[in-house]
Every structure is written in structure tokens, then in C-alpha cells.
Design a protein that fits this description.
This protein is α+β, with helices and mostly antiparallel strands. Helix content is 43%, strand content 16%. It has 14 helices and 14 strands. The strands form four sheets. Strands 1, 2, 4, 5 and 6 form a five-stranded mixed sheet that branches. The N and C termini lie far apart (50 Å). The mean pLDDT is 92. This is Reverse transcriptase domain-containing protein. One of its GO terms (molecular function) is 2-oxoglutarate-dependent dioxygenase activity. Pfam families: ALKBH8_N, RVT_1.
């Protein structure tokens, strides 16, 4: 580290294309994963932990990836709560969400620009120079099966597969923040959402925010994938007919969709969760077949229960805190039938989804309360008694049943 350089043998990597979908049709359907030195990976972990401990806690609060006490639940909850709150304020309000996709985001990082940003964050110059050296003059070759390409030396990007790459990308994009009080930019690694809280049909701030993002991408060598960038409009007003302004990036109108899968959760334009629940139920039912096969092999109930916990329950309860509260009775019953089927197969009593949801709301709420740097920590304010938390004001049932009001209610009931 003191030498501010990395030996080339530790920089060398082999790129293995991994298909993103079952039947890839082009190069963009492959993910270039870098196989690097095991020794270097171990050292990268030490550097990553040191960088993380050196960063200011308040840096980029809406980047929810690779940070302590942050997860996909937090990113989705932060996306939904402003949406529901804004819709709760008036019938004429609506929300626009632009789900941004980047083309090879990690591979477009410019080391010199990253070094400047790291220095601005207060990291030591020698560490910044070491990172710059780590990312430049990297020998790479591509391997497909038994065939390998010739070696090419690159000085741009952070290889996908390196331990440091996700953190470096987060630091590279830390200055990509909203410029208006009516817009929000939520990030989970390179999954970026631009939100516009629209009132009185005034979309100027939202459109200006997208223009600002486009300019920021050009300045930072990031390329927007226009074909995969989608816009979703959340408008629960049934009486008003609106004319929404189209979003254009580089002169191309963005496709408008009525649902989008964000961080594993299906978000619909009317914020119903039937589509997501049906998807979970279908996937869980497929796993029940394997559970029955294990039962037929006469494996102990403990083994069957462990299989259920890690392979079926994990599906049913993924991000459960953000969607279960607003799911319908029919959707909950459909999911609970999967649990009952598993109970019959394993001959053991399994926790119901309502109990899991309640406990996870409590657990996550306690973590947020203890973390003053969490962007939603301010929602948990104690009453004068110092024992109970102040309930959030809600006008609609969908906001009342969302995560943060439910979490506060769960904390108060537990006290």
C-alpha cells in the first residue's frame, strides 16, 4: 500500500461471459465476470473494510447498497413511502418513477475521476493513488469453454467480480443526487430510480432532474441504456384524465410501463401486490416438489424443515416488510396455503407469514431507531412519555398499512 502500486500478476484477470437469461441473443445478454487472484481478493477485502470505516456516515444516504444496516428493503421502502405520502396529500397528486439502466456501469469508471472523488471524500492520497494504480493497466483475456483470447491491457472500469468494484462504483456515483425538493434519486448499486412528486400537473422539476442526470452521466462517462430504461406512473386518481408529458433522453422517448420489477419486487402503477404475490406463490409451489422428493427419501423432519426455511420460506418472505402489509386477504391466503402444504409434508409446525411480517417490522424498526444516519430515522420520534413513538398521520388505508406506519405500531405494541 505504501508503494501505491499493485503488481501486474495480481491485476491479471480472466473474463468469463455469464448469460443473463436462459437464451441469450446478443453480447448484451452476457455479464462479463472477472476471475481474479484469490490472494488479491483477500487483500481487497482489507482495503474495502478500511475505506468503509473511513467514509463519513452521512455520505449519500440514498445509496442503500454495500452499507451497514441497509438492504433492498430499505431502498424499496424509501421508494414507496414518499410515493404513498404524496398521494395521501391530495387527489390531484401523482408520482412518476424512471427506472434507470446503465450500459456496463462498472466497466465505464474512469480511474482519474474516481481518484478525485475519493480525495474529496477525505481519503488519504496514498490510498487514492493505490486504487488508481489497481484499476489501470489491467491485463485481461476472455475465456469461453476451452477457448481463450489474447491478452488486452485496459485502464478503464472496475472489473465485475473484484471485491472492491461495487464499493468503488458507489463512491463514483455518490454525487449523483436530486437537485429539487420534489424529486428523489434512490440508488441500490447501479439500480437507480428518479422519482418526481407531481402536483398540479407540474412536471418541470422532474423533467429537469432527468436532464440533469443525463448531463451528469455524460460528465462521468456513464452510458444510459435507453432501451431498458422504463417509466412508471403511479396515479390512483380514477376520475381525472391526464396528459402526461413524455420523458426523452437523447431525443428518444422512454417506454412507459404499468409494472416494473425492482430489486425483486413487482411494483404496479396502482400499487397493488397481487402480481408479486402470485409470482412468489408460483415459485414456492415449484420448490414444494423438491420438498416432497426429500420426504420420499425418508429424511428427518429437521432436514425437511431446514430445506423449507432456506428454499421456500426465503422466497415467501423476501422483502416482506414492504409489500405484505398492503397485500389483499386473498393474496395472503394463497401464500399461506403454501405454508400449510409444507407443514403437511414436513409434519412440523411452521411460522405463519403474518407472524414473520410482524417480527421483521419490529426488528427493522429497532435498527432504524438506533441508526441516526438512516434516511428515515426522523420518522421515529418519541412522545413526551419517552416510551411510545408518535404515530404517522395517514388519510388513506394504503399509507396506513405501509411499512413505516406499521413498524411504528409494532414498536408501540412491543413496548
Amino acid at each position: 500500500m505504501c508503494l501505491q502500486s499493485v503488481q501486474k500478476c495480481f491485476k491479471r484477470s480472466t473474463i468469463v461471459p455469464i448469460p443473463k437469461k436462459p437464451r441469450p441473443s446478443g453480447l448484451s445478454d452476457y455479464r462479463p465476470v472477472a476471475l481474479t487472484s484469490v490472494v488479491m481478493k483477500c487483500f481487497e477485502k482489507l482495503v474495502r473494510d478500511f475505506i468503509t470505516s473511513s467514509l463519513p456516515a452521512s455520505m449519500d444516504p440514498l445509496q442503500f447498497a454495500y452499507r451497514h444496516n441497509r438492504s433492498t428493503d430499505d431502498a424499496i421502502a424509501h421508494l414507496l413511502h414518499p410515493t404513498l405520502t404524496h398521494l395521501d396529500k391530495g387527489r390531484g397528486n401523482y408520482v412518476k418513477m424512471l427506472f434507470v439502466d446503465y450500459s456496463s456501469a462498472f466497466n465505464t469508471i474512469i480511474p482519474s475521476l474516481l481518484t478525485t472523488k475519493l480525495e474529496d471524500l477525505g481519503l488519504h492520497t496514498s490510498l487514492c493513488d493505490w486504487i488508481s494504480n489497481f484499476l489501470t493497466d489491467r491485463p485481461q483475456s476472455v475465456r469461453v469453454g476451452n477457448c481463450a483470447s489474447s491478452t488486452l491491457t485496459l485502464s478503464t472500469g472496475a472489473p465485475l467480480g473484484c471485491v472492491l468494484s461495487p464499493l468503488l462504483y458507489s463512491l463514483y456515483t455518490y454525487d449523483c443526487t436530486a437537485t429539487s425538493s420534489s424529486t428523489i434519486i434512490v440508488k441500490f448499486a447501479d439500480d437507480t430510480v428518479v422519482m418526481g412528486l407531481i402536483s398540479d400537473n407540474d412536471e418541470r422539476a422532474y423533467l429537469e432532474e432527468i436532464k440533469h442526470l443525463e448531463n451528469w452521466c455524460q460528465e462521468n462517462n456513464l452510458l444510459l441504456n435507453i432501451s431498458k430504461t422504463k417509466e412508471l406512473i403511479v396515479d390512483c386518481s380514477k376520475k381525472q384524465e391526464r396528459h402526461y408529458q413524455p420523458v426523452r433522453i437523447s431525443g428518444t422517448a422512454m417506454e412507459r410501463v404499468d409494472n416494473f420489477r425492482y430489486l425483486g419486487v413487482h411494483i404496479l402503477q396502482h400499487l397493488s401486490w397481487s402480481c408479486h404475490s402470485n409470482s412468489l406463490a408460483k415459485k414456492a409451489h415449484q420448490r414444494l416438489y423438491h420438498l416432497r422428493c426429500l420426504r420420499d427419501f425418508r429424511l428427518p423432519s429437521k432436514v425437511l424443515r431446514n430445506f423449507y426455511t432456506y428454499n421456500i420460506e426465503s422466497i415467501l418472505t423476501g422483502n416482506i416488510t414492504v409489500w405484505f402489509g398492503n397485500s389483499t386477504k386473498q393474496d395472503r391466503q394463497a401464500l399461506q396455503r403454501v405454508v400449510r402444504s409444507a407443514e403437511c409434508i414436513t409434519h412440523t409446525e411452521l411460522p405463519d407469514l403474518q407472524t414473520i411480517y410482524y417480527k421483521r417490522c419490529q426488528t427493522k424498526a429497532r435498527r432504524i431507531v438506533k441508526d441516526p444516519t438512516h434516511p428515515k430515522n426522523r420518522l421515529f420520534s418519541l412522545l413526551r412519555s419517552g416510551r411510545r413513538f408518535c404515530s404517522l398521520k395517514t388519510n388513506t388505508e394504503r399509507l396506513k398499512r405501509s411499512f413505516f406506519p406499521q413498524a411504528i405500531r409494532a414498536l408501540n405494541q412491543g413496548n
